[in-house]
Design goal:
This protein is mainly alpha-helical. It has helices at about 5-15, 55-70; strands at about 35, 45. It has one domain (about 5-75). The chain has 2 helices and 2 strands. A two-stranded antiparallel sheet has the order 1-2. The chain is flat and about 35 Å long. The two termini are about 15 Å apart. The relative contact order is 0.16.
Length: about 80
């Protein structure tokens, strides 16, 4: 948490609208899609970070991955994590 994942997404992939917190952990909703301005087929999902002993964010990400795996269309599945 708070190590710059959202900043990396914004800068490296040209994705606009990613919420960046200057101090500490920011807020992210994994269901929200961000499309790269450099390549519209490149879609990212930003998640909350993980803290030692905290399980809620892990369960959210795990459920998201499992649900995407069940999608019938290849375009709706996850291609990298």
């Amino acid at each position: 948490t708070g190590v710059g994942k959202s900043s990396l997404i914004q800068e490296a992939f040209g994705v606009k609208g990613v919420e960046i917190s200057g101090y500490g952990a920011g807020q992210a909703t994994i269901e929200k899609e961000f499309k790269s301005n450099q390549n519209g087929r490149f879609v990212l999902h930003d998640s909350q970070g993980f803290e030692p002993g905290e399980t809620k964010n892990w369960e959210t990400v795990k459920t998201f991955i499992q649900e995407r795996d069940k999608q019938p269309e290849l375009k709706d599945k996850l291609h990298a994590i």
